[in-house]
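Need residues for this backbone.
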């Protein structure tokens, strides 16, 4: 059985990771979903930087199919804001996170299912799976880890 101190450490690590999720959602996903191009001359510097990744790993980001755009909108409008709430709640030991956190985790896992489905079975599969999967599976594992942590937590 984990100790309270070890659970607090897990919560703090998850909190830091959720801040990174929020940054990704607001800085990369949302602008791309709203039509800012991923290109070498993109007006948004982070999407200029993403262009190299898109060319070598995820060409779908160069011409976004509708379900990828939906996933990016989820990242920007749902996952990004919720990640900040989750980070705050985890860092400060707020137990009210349990129910919304479990709902979020389910939605995020489903989002990644559709994201990966598009990636693997769409017209532009990853060109280098040994690079693609280690960089993208954490987006699936983090909501699973959150659900595992929250599952046994009592609300209060």
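Answer:
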């Amino acid at each position: 059985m984990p100790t309270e101190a070890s659970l607090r450490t897990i919560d703090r690590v998850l909190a830091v990771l959720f801040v990174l999720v929020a940054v990704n959602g607001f800085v990369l996903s949302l602008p791309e979903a709203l039509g800012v191009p991923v290109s070498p001359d993109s007006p948004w510097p982070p999407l200029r930087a993403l262009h190299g990744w898109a060319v070598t790993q995820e060409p779908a980001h160069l011409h976004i199919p509708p379900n990828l755009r939906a996933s990016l909108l989820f990242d920007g409008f749902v996952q990004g804001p919720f990640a900040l709430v989750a980070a705050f709640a985890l860092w400060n030991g707020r137990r009210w996170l349990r129910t919304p956190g479990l709902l979020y985790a389910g939605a995020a896992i489903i989002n990644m299912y559709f994201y990966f489905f598009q990636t693997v079975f769409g017209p532009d599969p990853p060109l280098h799976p040994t690079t693609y999967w280690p960089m993208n599976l954490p987006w699936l594992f983090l909501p699973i880890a959150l659900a595992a942590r929250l599952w046994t937590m009592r609300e209060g």
